Amino acid sequence: MQEIKVTLTKNPKKKPADESKLGFGSIFTDHMFVMNYDEGQGWHDPRIVPYGPIELDPAAMCLHYGQEVFEGMKAYKTADGRALLFRPEKNMARLNRSNERLCIPLVDEAFCVEALKKLVGIEKDWIPTAEGTSLYLRPFIFAVDPQVGVHPAKHLMFLIICSPVGAYYPEGLNPVKIYVEKNYVRAVRGGLGFAKTAANYAASLKAQDEAEEQSYTQVLWLDGVERRYIEEVGTMNVFFRIGDEIVTPALQGSILPGITRMSCIELLRSWGYQVTERKLAIDELYEAYQKGQLKEAFGSGTAAVISPIGQLKWGDEIMMINNGEIGEVSQKLYDNLTGIQWGKLPDTMGWTVEVK
Amino acid sequence: MQEIKVTLTKNPKKKPADESKLGFGSIFTDHMFVMNYDEGQGWHDPRIVPYGPIELDPAAMCLHYGQEVFEGMKAYKTADGRALLFRPEKNMARLNRSNERLCIPLVDEAFCVEALKKLVGIEKDWIPTAEGTSLYLRPFIFAVDPQVGVHPAKHLMFLIICSPVGAYYPEGLNPVKIYVEKNYVRAVRGGLGFAKTAANYAASLKAQDEAEEQSYTQVLWLDGVERRYIEEVGTMNVFFRIGDEIVTPALQGSILPGITRMSCIELLRSWGYQVTERKLAIDELYEAYQKGQLKEAFGSGTAAVISPIGQLKWGDEIMMINNGEIGEVSQKLYDNLTGIQWGKLPDTMGWTVEVK
Ligand SMILES: Cc1ncc(COP(=O)(O)O)c(C=O)c1O
Ligand SMILES: Cc1ncc(COP(=O)(O)O)c(C=O)c1O
């Protein structure tokens, strides 16, 4: 494995005084991991350096053609002061699936997990400890060739930056209101939907904006072909408890395969719930709702962990779910996931990785 | 109108010695235009400064969420030494349509045309003069908020950079071989297809790569819903001469409304050709080909102007068009467009704008 050179900052920043006001993703720690790719050399010069600006040629491809991928994960501080990562190898595996789709040279997944651990080790004091807070980790790769022409890049950068965060939604664990999007499409079969890449988020901005204007927290995307099948929410996968079944849209290329989604499915099944990954039409959901069979709905994602959905607006129809309150399955998943992540429950699944 | 502050370089670069070897988009001139947007202030501080690197926070949104748009246009040098732009107001209008879709604050189109003229005026000696060469102009906007969370940016940058270019395709005016893409999708109705934005190009990289591996120059995209209707080529719109009709896919949201496309349609109609903007299925095209009615095919775009298509591969079927030679309509369009652009023909359409 390559050696990671470390240069520590001489000007450490002040850490946030009030951990209840962290918000999400606007404060960054003292250091970052950086590594370069150059054709012929492969990924080289892995290093941890003081957090600071990067210099780009104005023609750098990432500013024009969106050849960039990223990951999102967290480090958690346990009550006894240990730092834990949650299934980091899954994120690095997904990063490589995104790389593959975006014609970005693959990274060494095991090495990237080591880099992550080394960085988090150095930034350990930045992991906040207040209830629900954590250190958000953002590995990302972007193309830097100064070249105005659409071709896969030959020069790229890989960075990891860290941000102490609180709740992703101001609502916290309170149920959110979600708007079913009828006009805009985020991703379609054959496109980039399954990759964690800039394009999908760029495509979501306008719908998200219009939803917020109508006081909805995020949009629920429908498939781009028939505009009928439920896909995912802005930055979460979705689950519905319909009768005795827990349904989540199958992974068919247009949605992100969430690590939280995967973990929810595994936990639910270990508890004996029937979880089905399948196509779920919005009209089928509405029918179940009318029959009183839609008992719970929730989103799953690293940022919000579990986010109960209290209201779904589909055209003129409003579905009020579980009286706008958090349901038992959502609560149980939240308690268990956060329990494992923050080391409050035994990690029976072997999901956490301690940073020494 | 805001004043554009000019700071000239003290270290002018050497201009390319051999204009036959310019290639496309890898050489940049001495200066660039820059302007900033900050919430509350609007677009401000327009300036022309020496071409050089920009500093970005690693959390800058453009590196993660692809909130970025661009334009592509050219400045041409006439035989008597004048510098001409081609319908620049159309590019700035399209830029604003892209901005609107990407939640980017609109720019003042007339002011941007002035900025362009001022920059090209300063870089006039960089416009190459060899046959088929020009100065490619790349206006672009990207989000710079250091914020890891998916929201429209409050801080952005607008730049214009210039690159002396030769032919976009090594083939020049020789017919290119194009591959009909069956698996990957570039954009879908409801998505970003009509905007000139990073996402669409990121989505195209892999298909383009696979096409090149099979010795095809670019791919022809089919629609994302039925995967049947012809959309456009990598960086060009497409036209087909079928019997007495010239057909080009209608603008229905998923393809880029090319300025060259628009100009071709206007020229063809002014010459009395019947041009139809409509849905065109790939199987209809193949049928026409089999009946001997497919007489010509060509792509249109700023970079390549007119690029005749000599071969189209659709699954196992290969369509050889016009014996792999340039057709009469393609040639006539090329001659007239380049004639107007380089000032060799009278500009009867009023399309060129001289840079004084
Ligand atoms: C579009 C999208 N879907 C789903 C998720 C959930 O994925 P994960 O559970 O891996 O965080 C995310 C991200 O974080 C996302 O951005
Ligand atoms: C996807 C795409 N389609 C079509 C075109 C042609 O547009 P224009 O004629 O304005 O250059 C371009 C660009 O240059 C393009 O990138």
UniProtKB/TrEMBL annotation, chains A, B:
Pfam families in the record: Aminotran_4
Keyword Transcription: no
Catalysed reactions, as listed in the record: L-leucine + 2-oxoglutarate = 4-methyl-2-oxopentanoate + L-glutamate; L-isoleucine + 2-oxoglutarate = (S)-3-methyl-2-oxopentanoate + L-glutamate; L-valine + 2-oxoglutarate = 3-methyl-2-oxobutanoate + L-glutamate
Cofactor: pyridoxal 5'-phosphate
GO BP terms: isoleucine biosynthetic process; L-leucine biosynthetic process; L-valine biosynthetic process
InterPro entries in UniProt: Aminotrans_IV, Aminotrans_IV_CS, Aminotransferase-like, B_amino_transII, BCAT-like_C, BCAT-like_N, BCAT_family
Keyword tags: Amino-acid biosynthesis, Aminotransferase, Branched-chain amino acid biosynthesis, Pyridoxal phosphate, Transferase
Pathway info: Amino-acid biosynthesis; L-leucine biosynthesis; L-leucine from 3-methyl-2-oxobutanoate: step 4/4; Amino-acid biosynthesis; L-isoleucine biosynthesis; L-isoleucine from 2-oxobutanoate: step 4/4; Amino-acid biosynthesis; L-valine biosynthesis; L-valine from pyruvate: step 4/4
EC number: 2.6.1.42
One term of GO molecular function: branched-chain-amino-acid transaminase activity
Modified residue annotations for N6-(pyridoxal phosphate)lysine: K196
Family: Belongs to the class-IV pyridoxal-phosphate-dependent aminotransferase family.
NCBIfam families, per the entry: ilvE_II, PRK13357.1
Protein name (Swiss-Prot/TrEMBL): Branched-chain-amino-acid aminotransferase
